Predict the 3D structure of the following.
Amino acid sequence: MAVSVAEIEKPEANDYELAQRSAAGDLAAFEELYRRHFRRVFAIALRMTASPEEAEDLAQETFIQLFKKIGSFRGDSAFTTWLHRMTVNQVLMHFRRRKSRPEYTTEEGETPVQIVQGTENQNRMPVVDRIVLEDAIAKLPLGYRSVFVLHDVEGYEHNEVGKMLGISEGTSKSQLHKARLKLRGLIRQQAEKN
Amino acid sequence: MDCTESLNLLSDLHDRLLDDPLETQVKSHLDCCPPCSNVFGELSEIVNVSVRLNRDPNINFPDEDDIWRRMRLADPKIH
């Protein structure tokens, strides 16, 4: 009887199994987790810091933390959610240490965007391409940027974003809305300069 | 519904988080208010592009092998 390749191939271990093996000292399993998730971790760190050098260091630090804490992963949430929360914590700790981003915790710290009929530039916002949007995201205050990246780019729900950032679901919604309005303003501003 | 109220609800409208009666009110306002409708269209465009950033990241990723080696140097337990 013919045996297909799929039948003889060993099924790929899932993240939870790899985490358990890593916790038991299996470095190959840990390396597999690293290879699977490095890019997403780096992308989150990059979008939150807007600095490739800082993102590289933070991604490295995140995986060192992961190695130390992998035994505490119980599989209650998806491994990616747990790892991304760890990534966000690393980034936030980094900013707290540096204290160069005082705009964090900006639930109400930004001037609310007001649209008064007749006062706004009536020109349509220019076409948004990825580069324009990435540039604008980098200019957002950290609090807004964190929520925007996790919700709109990474696709987390508000309750998950809230848990990751230690804020309420309502605050996550409110910050997301302000972030989108702020981005719209930044994109328009940039277009007017050009 | 006035423009200020409408403006505050545009993200929730986009994300389908409003209950039906409120959604109807915001949509009715947008139908007769070009500036708010314009803001809604632009926010939607921003969200649509942001979703694509994750699907197809245009990022120069660093060398994974290099960082793996650095991690092993930084933490001797990773051997």
User: Anything to note?
Assistant: Residues 27 and 37 of chain B are 9 Å apart (CA to CA). The interface with chain A takes residues 3-4, 7-8, 10-12, 17, 33, 35-36, 38-39, 42-43, 45-47, 49-54, 57-62, 64, 67-68, 70-71, 74-75, 77-79 of chain B (CB under 8 Å). The first helix of chain B runs from residue 3 to 8.
